[in-house]
Amino acid sequence: MREALQSVESYESFIYSIKDHHPEIVVSTLVIVRRGPHRCQLQGEVHFDRNLVLRVYERVDFLEAKIAYYSYEVYRDESLIYWYDPQPHPVDPTLASTHPHHQHIHPDIKHHRIPAPGLSFDQPNLSFLVKEIVEKLLK
Q1: Which among 4, 61, 104, 112 is least buried, having the fewest CB atoms inside 10 angstroms?
Q2: pTM for this prediction
Q3: Structural domains in the chain (count)
Q4: Is 94 exposed, middle or buried, given 0-12, 13-18 or 19+ CB atoms closer than 10 A?
């Protein structure tokens, strides 16, 4: 999976074939925008049954073979269910195990955060996110 972050072309192949590997995806509007020879921005939505939508934003650096930044939001209809971001919260010891990766959940979604052990800067997160939605929200 890490090989997808080795080049823009390999990441494009991974992203644009995601629906082929996950039949639960109804529609993907994900688009990679190149930001030079070694960087890109990924944005768009992944749609599932039951009006579930994953909104994706990433900045990827292929020189470092890393995701430089991300934001992932999951909605049912227009209601935000949860989101992930890597904004550091070093004063919250409950998040130390996956620092800086964490998930915002209800209640008080802005301030209620839990660790996110499935996310990484070193490999694509999309397969994990799709699997999580399928297992937790579609079954």
Answers
A1: 112
A2: 0.95
A3: 1
A4: exposed
